[in-house]
Design a protein that fits this description.
Number of helices: 9
Low-confidence stretches: none
Number of strands: 9
Structural class: alpha+beta
Helix content: 40-55%
Largest sheet: 4 strands, mixed
Shape: elongated
Distance between the termini: 62 Å
Oligomer: single chain
Order of helices and strands: HEHHEEHEHEEEHEEHHH
Strand order of the largest sheet: 4-5-7-6
Number of domains: 2
Radius of gyration: 19 Å
Mean pLDDT: 92
């Protein structure tokens, strides 16, 4: 029970074996495996994906970012959240170092789709207007717009009026010339 309390006080909801080992400070991997077996059997932890453990209630964004180390939440997930686009997407969209689709059965009746989209490392690793939450990273709305333009030419956005255009112009500089031109068109249209 003491180990479960330590897990709960870690402020995480999603864990790798290494995370749990660091929190509980087990001496051997066998002790860790025994704990994980008991915690799953008792229903304290779940194991929805190989090597990833969750509490019963967990943050889906935290889970998504645990699937790939170098990744952050962006694209339609952020654009919808920030009302830049109005269409609903079930997928959780991330930027990462390779393109990958993962379908994972999270609950007995629900499958979550995670779409990882490759972007070059110089952009992926640049922290400009990425927001570090406690256990994961998300793009600002402006960064998500630039990410989408980088991956898709002539993308249509429903409402760009609430963006910070200075921030948008600043972020565009880490992308290619095409993105910079697209962003400049937007700024000319909205800023008079």
């Amino acid at each position: 029970m003491e180990n479960n309390t330590k897990i709960l006080h870690s402020d995480k909801t999603v864990f790798t074996k290494k995370d749990i080992l660091n929190i509980l400070d087990f001496n051997t991997s066998m002790a860790l495996d025994k704990y994980l077996f008991r915690a799953k059997k008792e229903g304290f932890l779940e194991n929805p994906f190989y090597g990833i453990y969750t509490l019963k209630k967990y943050d889906i964004f935290e889970f998504a970012c645990k699937l790939k180390k170098k990744s952050y939440i962006s694209l339609e997930t952020i654009l919808k959240k920030e009302w830049v686009i109005f269409q609903y997407y079930e997928n959780i969209f991330l930027i990462s170092d390779n393109t990958l689709e993962k379908k994972i059965k999270i609950e007995w009746n629900k499958i979550n789709n995670f779409s990882f989209n490759k972007i070059k490392d110089s952009i992926l690793l640049n922290p400009l207007w990425l927001i570090n939450k406690w256990n994961y990273t998300i793009a600002s709305a402006e960064r998500a717009v630039c990410d989408r333009f980088y991956l898709s030419k002539n993308y249509y956005f429903d409402d760009l009026s609430n963006l910070n255009f200075e921030k948008l112009e600043q972020i565009s500089q880490i992308y290619n010339k095409r993105v910079i031109l697209e962003i400049n068109k937007i700024i000319k249209k909205y800023v008079k």
